[in-house]
Design goal:
By secondary structure, the protein is of the alpha+beta class. The chain has one domain. The protein contains four helices and ten strands, in the order E-E-E-E-H-H-E-E-E-E-E-H-E-H. It has a four-stranded antiparallel beta sheet with strand order 1-2-3-4. It has a four-stranded antiparallel beta sheet with strand order 7-8-9-10. A two-stranded antiparallel sheet has the order 5-6. The longest helix is centred in the last third of the chain and has 21 residues. The radius of gyration is 17 Å and the shape is globular. The mean pLDDT is 94.
């Protein structure tokens, strides 16, 4: 069954897109799962869970197209503490974060680098030193608003993965996204 798409990062790391059907039967509203796999990790990291194929694939294509043109240079305000740490602060409505205005709306500067979200992880793509960076960060997912638990989470906070995506690899991923988008368009 041809229902797995592999986006290779390196010999021991990859992004896996799990389809609910054969690739050629994919529809825009088919629900897909996306994982990060590494030989150094005992479990897959869930990046995108049971969500629409069109959203996950199109978002990947769009953000990679910007990144290979160096249009996603990481904002200086995100460098010291890190994008994932600050994202958790954003979710907690902290007011010290750097906000930007665009088209009359105000939003946290880190959101422009957001690729995918799942219950426990955020996935980011940005440029740093003319490189394309894929970063996976944990999110505080405790349903109750326990400040003490949140502080414990922050004190032990650690980025899950930071990977440099070579330009040639990013171009291959974009090509694969285009193939999948054409299949979805044909099937809808």
């Amino acid at each position: 069954m041809d229902n797995i798409i592999i986006l290779k990062i390196s010999s021991d790391k990859k992004i896996v897109i799990s389809l609910p059907c054969e690739v050629l039967d994919l529809h825009r509203y088919s629900e897909i799962d996306i994982y990060f796999q590494s030989t150094k990790l005992s479990n897959n990291i869930v990046l995108y869970k049971s969500d629409f194929a069109i959203e996950g694939i199109r978002t990947l294509k769009t953000i990679l197209e910007k990144a290979i043109k160096n249009k996603l240079e990481i904002h200086y305000s995100l460098k010291e503490k890190g994008i994932g740490y600050l994202c958790n602060e954003y979710f907690q409505d902290k007011t010290y974060l750097t906000m930007v205005k665009k088209n009359g709306n105000t939003f946290w500067v880190g959101l422009k680098y957001s690729l995918w979200s799942s219950k426990k992880y955020e996935t980011w793509v940005y440029n740093e030193n003319n490189k394309v960076v894929l970063e996976i960060t944990p999110t505080y997912s405790n349903e109750n608003d326990n400040e003490e638990e949140y502080v414990k989470f922050l004190n032990s906070y650690c980025t899950t993965a930071i990977e440099i995506i070579e330009k040639e690899v990013a171009l291959q991923w974009i090509e694969k996204c285009n193939e999948l988008l054409k299949i979805m368009e044909k099937n809808d």
